[in-house]
Amino acid sequence: MLSKYDYDAIVIGAGVGGLVCGCYLAKAGLKTVIIEKNPKVGGYCTSFSSKGFSFDTFVHSLGSCRKNGNITKIIEELNLTNEITLNRSDPSDIIITPNHRIFFWSDFRKTIQEFQENFPKEAKNIKDFFSYLLNHNNISLVSIRNNTFKDLLDRYFANAELKAILGFPVLGNIGLPPSLASAFAALKLYQEFMFDGGYYPSGNMQTFADVLAHKFNDYGGELILSNLVKKIDIKNNKTMEIILAKKNISMSSKYVISNIDAIQTFSCLLGETIVDKHFLNKLSTMKTSLSMFILYLGFDNEIEKLPKEGSNVWYLPHYDIEKLYIGAEKRGANNIAEYMMHIFTKKNISIFINANFDSKEYWNAHKEEISIKLIKKLEISFPCLSQKIVYRQMTTPYVLYKTTLNQKGAAYGWASMPSQFAEPGLTQITPIENLYLCSHWSTLAQGVGGVAYLGNNTAKLILRKERINSK
Amino acid sequence: MQNNIPDNLENELKQLIALTIGISPEELEITTNFWSDLGVDSIKAIAITVAIERRYKVTVRDEQIPQITTVGQVIEIVKDALKKKSDGK
Lengths: 471, 89
Known about the structure:
A: alpha/beta, 14 helices, 35% helix, globular, B: mainly alpha, Non-ribosomal Peptide Synthetase Peptidyl Carrier Protein, Chain A
């Protein structure tokens, strides 16, 4: 199409957002390359096997897979229906507190009933809240743009325990307590993940990323693995040039889509000779999301008492979510309370806790102790679990940083606070013409469903600009 | 300029909205419907609203939100907000 460039589009980062964007661009006939620094694709959506056990590194299930859901649309539009099957765990999530146990079922009416049975005095408010929440894509959602999730919970409910239970998945999946989380982002989390979640691809999470990468190749896209982009230059005001770390290869393109950390993109790759100083200053004052500490365990025998395979178990020890967030901001071995456990099978599980970044040294010094304390915590619900452990591995915030170069190992890109939502210049559209963002470092969306939406939507914007019919 | 309302408000808003949703300003007629013609969804509608509020340092009132559908209607919302601002309300 654009012969004066080496490529029509260069995508930096082969996470799900970049893969989806690349697929749509290549499918439409644009000469597209995706550059990934790691030897495999997926970003946070990867898997690994060790000593006979298989785990997903970070993302462990998919949402937005209902009819017309973001992932469903992508699978259909990219003709992937024969290549990937999604199975849904039912229930997808279970929240356990000192005096409640709430299941999230694939039939959302059953889930709403669960809440009503646990909180009969709030039954009508629960019905009203969820009917508002499940009202997708309504313009009235604009009115909550400046609200926190706490504002919204307070509008509907009086019961503090109920509000804490509803706030807990927001803390776990967005990394902010209700008092700080954007009401819109929290609603999207419930719409797209808690009420439409628990899907697992045939194979594992890596399969999902790999299938997208194969499709990208089938559409004529070029994938470069194990090479880092070290610079983006702009020539003659228009042409973007990418320089790779290995062999100093340079390649020009009309469009660049950054599916990596925004601070990396603007401060390191572009730099202050290209990007406005005020914009760079703004970036440096913005808040990033919390990181994550993940523990992977394999057992010699099945632990029968574990909940159903494929489900997520959320353990909430008390109802002070704000206190749990403060704890996560300075996570240490003496400060382990809440956790989320994903059951791969009854023989292997992973446990997630929100954590701050601190430093490489901090995690090297404390990861062992933290993992032991976390196992002790699990034993409250599953006695003698430690005796069955034959495999134990950890991912620290520093490892998340090293894997993705996400600032401070941020698990969800920018912190989804109302003040940072849809930040001008940091949506998909950036101050640099023809440079787009399609990861969770755009301030529009988080989670796999969110970045899949952004990848698709960003490709549509580019194709529209090129007057190419995207159908 | 009256009541702090820029003379070229229509063009300014076309530029701003086009930039926010990633299209060319020429694609925006005064009656182009963001939702049905341009596929704007609730996320993009928030982005448009935030962009307008930041640019003109105004607040779009809740009852005006359903009118964020065309450039023409957005012009009226911004005019109203700027007038209220200059009246000190």
